[in-house]
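Case study.
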Amino acid sequence: MDAELYLDNNSFIHRLDPRTKIIIFLLSFVAILLFQNPLWMLPVAVLIFLELYVSKAFKNIYRIRVLLIILSLFSLILWNFFARGQTHWFLFVYKESFFYAVARTLLMVLMISAGVVLISTTRNEELVLGLIKLGVPYRVGFAISTALRLVPTIASSTVTISQAQRSRGLDLDSGNLIERIRKFLPLLVPVFISTIRSTNIFAMALESKGFGAREHRTNYLRLKMQKSDYIVLGFVIAFVIASVTLSIMGYGKLTGLKNF
Amino acid sequence: MKEVFSMWKYTRMIILVALSAAIYAAFLIVFKAGIPIVPGITEVRPANVFPPVFSLLFGPAGAWGAAIGNFIGDLFGGTLGIGSIFGFFGNFFLGFIPYKLFGSVFGLVPANDMSQTTNSGKKLLAFEIITLVASAACAIIIAWYLDLTKIVPFAFLSITITLNNFAAGVVLGPILLSLLFPRVKRWGLIWTDIMKKEDVAPGFGKGLGAILMIVGSLGGLIVGVLVATGVSGQTLLGFTGEQGQTAVWLAVLPFLALIIIASLMLSGREQFVEEVDED
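After joint prediction, the assembly is written out as follows.
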């Protein structure tokens, strides 16, 4: 199982400055969170799916499809319990609560997709440098980006170890939830051990390359905002300003919705 | 809280922040698809066993790891939203309180054995108490904010988060800690083996600080729930009643202040014990 989410392509999105990609990522969250009506979320959905298409990052969405499908199904059903409306359809489902559930599901899928675009198109060192240039302390930025990179590695290790144990006859599929968790716990220990054990080697590797030697460090990698970065940023900022304005004007609400 | 900032000068601590965040996030994401309680806000979280365990082993790195891990979990689990801001702070305290409180909780951890394990009944009890206190602190921080912003009612959410955090920690925590401690100790990765004592806040009135932390967390939970159910008409098992009520906001606020004050009073230095060289 390939744990790396970065895709080594040379797409337009890949070539953008990491600062541009981080700002787009954050602004897209603002745009996603503004509206209750799923139809009003479609423009931002189109933009994020366009990013996925241009960067060829649908490959990574496909890799997490099972998680996405399960989350979406749960979300589509459960949000109906937490919202009511005026037009009753059946059981606990109202027209308004259904559209609200669709909007919340879309919100979730879009947030995950926006994150996947960022990680699929930005190398770790670019992400760190981008965070530093945006004002995050170097060490904090390093910790965040390393954690982001390690998540799929840990997930991959868990799968590998569970497959190895299954091949030796461990039955992880039978029993109730408690029994399954109990059987799964011993599998986690090798994952932790292998992950935590690497700390000292990791630290030595970093320090041998001068990590933390000086307070202010220089970087081999030089970031430079190009014309395309400014154009994309200008477009995204204008898009978000327009979305915020429309939201303040009262557009994108689900009339008759009573949530919580 | 000095060590929360001074730890960033230690390379190993930075790596431990990344590792604990990644492990926490990975298992949060796996269980996002498990049993949602409020979709987009919280779900059944067995991964909440990690913050108290990583807190005892990695100290402030465990606290930052919990905060960053929760944020990454929200990001890739599709639950990033307005609640994630205080989710960051709530989870930070879930990983911050255990190591600060461990050596000061009613003298349950003897001064001659400050090892971060549950190798005696008293230390096991200490672990359960600090897990409960940290769970409640995390819960009231998140629920206070989400009630204020009228997203989820305080009574329901604070109880849900407390039980969610505590259930995972109380059952799986001691097992995980006993499995990890010997190895982590052997590799010299316990936080007291990495950091220098002078880089940790000296604290003052630690006994009183421990009491204030317990009162701030559990008191805030109890008073907040009583006010929310009494004045605002909220229920523990539903979404009825008024949210964003000034009464809930004002009732919980002093307890949040107590948690901050207690954080400044507690130290963690008491866990730095000179080890005798057996050779």
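Observations recorded in class. The two ends of chain B are 36 Å apart (CA to CA). The mean pLDDT of chain B is 84. We will return to this complex in the next lecture.
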